[in-house]
Amino acid sequence: MSTTEEEVVEEVQTDAVREAIAKAFADELGDGFIEQHVRPGSDLWIRIAPASWVAAASFARDKLGMTWLDFVSAIDWMPSPFGREMDAEQDWGAEGRENEAQEMTTGLAGGDTRFQMFMRLYSTEEHIGVTIKADVANDSPAIDTLIPVFAGASWHEREVAEMFGINIVGHPDLRVLYLPTGFEGNPLRKDYPLVSRRVKPWPGIVDVENMPGDGDDEDEAEATA
Amino acid sequence: MADITADLDITNEEQLRYIAGQAADARVNIELETEGMTLNIGPQHPATHGTLRIVARLDGEKVIEAEPIMGYMHRGYEKLTEVRTYPQVTTLINRIDWVGSFANEVPFILAAEELMDVEAPPRAQYIRTALFEMGRIANIMLFLGDMPVQLGGVTAIFYAFRDREFVLNQIESATGGRFHPNFNRIGGVKDDLPAGWIKETKSAMQKVRDFCDEIEDLVMGNEIFQTRCRGVGIIPPDIAMAYGLSGANLRGSGVDWDLRRDADSPLAWKDLDWKVWTHPDGDSFSRFWVRLQETREASYMVEQLLDGLPAGPIMAKVPRIIKVPAGESYVQTENPLGAMGYYVISQGELTPFRVKIRTASFSNMSISPWLLEGVYVPDIATILASLYFILGDIDR
């Protein structure tokens, strides 16, 4: 993580409440609990095995009072194969396009697979939320439905299914939500091209021109940094 | 029937086939009667806040099953943010809930500020909060005028449009945009307030309160409004929570939760003296009532903000080219339509790696198949209007 993260940790040191919630999940889920990340005084992330996905949600709802379903969604961690090649040259930076991330890097609480499901639950009594992540298999990604625990998960899961191509096992009605019937592809996957951008390259940061009176040298150094 | 067969001069076998055919036709007729009909509403918003289609299966006047079909306005903002720099994103997300645009920008900017470890100076936070609340007022005034229209009372909407102008004019004179201010910057706001703005805004707030009184007289005391809304479209709190309802829809079901009070936000709500309104009934009327109280409360909040406006800069020191350090952050605020949040994942680039946009209307609307089951056809429009959703906020 970045240095800013570490500074915050040094300032506040610990967050007993969120640590306790993470521990409760760990005790309940056993081997299903993989990793946790606490940003003291602010937020909590945990990563669980996909088999514990539904169990974690019902545990949070019944035992931790997190009865409010915020959202369910997914992340595609693969670096975009299109990168910034369609961008104007001035946006590439000093090293050209070489500085593009080639390796897959995952976020807080880690991850091993390309696709990751994440849901956010919140307690309107305690005013504490948790982001729960679960890795899903790279080939034929799938996860169990949350509808038995949170009825409102239905639409969120339909969106995940069409946008990421992740199969929601046990969902009674997995039709497309936004896309036209018969649409091919999963638009929010990183390897799905944004066609308009491929047809017409972006003009670049033309609006960040020097203001009158600004030192030219200093700004150019900043722009290419 | 016997006469017809006699005329046709048919054999015994043909006669049997004929009778069997008649019986089959009769069966079909019977089935059609019991199956009821399928009613297609739209693609159009019953309250014209965008384009929505509802397919309802009816038994007489009763809805057996209602299914909203959306996506007519899906613009793919989550994908588009991945190829926009952080300052460019606010232009897009302005258009999510287009009636309360200013509030759309704030949680995204706060999430980016959290990742960059930047905090806007107090004056900027006060200006943000004041415009946020004015956006709420302008947004909910439209609702207060529009819901009576669904019940056949068209007068209120004209009062709403008339008085909303006072608020929109103030937003415009401060930000330059009537509907799409695009006024927030990472680290502060674009401009300071124009001269004389505070005085004019205070008079606009007085007009808002007069409007609220007028609506209270005109609409809430109306007998037809009461009979059509009381006890209709009841949402119990536990169901509301499972569907992730938020804002006045949740507070109208008696859940005392407001992110302005309950979340640790850098905005100025914590400095104000105000009250969270709830109503225990959970019906269409209570949602209307809560929104009316919130509008009035917001007008007092704006006045307090303007009285306590601190002096100082409006921008923190941020680099000209904004690169957000790698990390993840989720910030949610209490927007006019309910809880709106941005889950921003950065990998240290000029553009976000992924932005998950959690909008209030999406969750608020997801309860509609459950809620519309068993209601009468004329109540569909009332109930949907009382949930108050903007299609851009559902489809993104």
Descriptive notes:
The complex is a heterodimer of chains A (225) and B (396). With 225 residues, chain A is α/β, with parallel strands linked by helices. Chain A has a single domain (3-91, 104-193), classed as Beta Polymerase, domain 2, CATH 3.30.460. Helices cover 27% and strands 20% of the residues of chain A. Chain A contains 6 helices and 7 strands, in the order ααββαββββαβαα. Chain A has a 5-stranded mixed beta sheet. In chain A, strands 6-7 form a two-stranded parallel ribbon. In chain A, strand 4 and strand 5 (128-136) form a beta hairpin. Chain A is globular. Chain A starts with a helix and ends with a helix. Mean pLDDT of chain A is 77; it is low at 1-9 and 217-225. With 396 residues, chain B is mainly α. Chain B folds into 2 domains: 2-34, no CATH class; 76-229 and 247-358, Orthogonal Bundle (Cytochrome-c3 Hydrogenase, chain B). Helices cover 52% and strands 12% of the residues of chain B. Chain B has 17 helices and 8 strands. Chain B has helices at 2-8, 12-35, 77-80, 86-93, 101-116, 122-150, 155-175, 197-220, 223-229, 237-242, 248-251, 259-262, 284-307, 360-366, 368-372, 377-387, 391-395, and strands at 37-41, 53-59, 62-69, 184-185, 188-189, 327-335, 338-346, 354-358. In chain B, the strands form 3 sheets. Chain B has a 3-stranded antiparallel beta sheet. Chain B has a 3-stranded antiparallel beta sheet with strand order 6-7-8. In chain B, helix 8 (197-220) runs antiparallel to helix 13. The relative contact order of chain B is 0.18. The model of chain B has no long low-confidence stretch (mean pLDDT 84). At the A-B interface, helix 1, strand 3, helix 4 and helix 6 of A face helix 3, helix 5, helix 10, strand 6 and strand 7 of B.
SSE diagram, text form:
The complex is a heterodimer of chains A (225) and B (396).
Chain A (H helix, E strand, L loop, with lengths): L2 H10 L3 H14 L3 E7 L3 E6 L4 H11 L4 E9 L38 E9 L4 E9 L5 E3 L8 H12 L2 E3 L25 H5 L16 H8 L2
Parallel strand pairs in A: 2-5, 6-7
Antiparallel strand pairs in A: 1-2, 3-4, 4-5
Chain B lengths: L1 H7 L3 H24 L1 E5 L11 E7 L2 E8 L7 H4 L5 H8 L7 H16 L5 H29 L4 H21 L8 E2 L2 E2 L7 H24 L2 H7 L7 H6 L5 H4 L7 H4 L21 H24 L19 E9 L2 E9 L7 E5 L1 H7 L1 H5 L4 H11 L3 H5 L1
Antiparallel strand pairs in B: 1-2, 2-3, 4-5, 6-7, 7-8
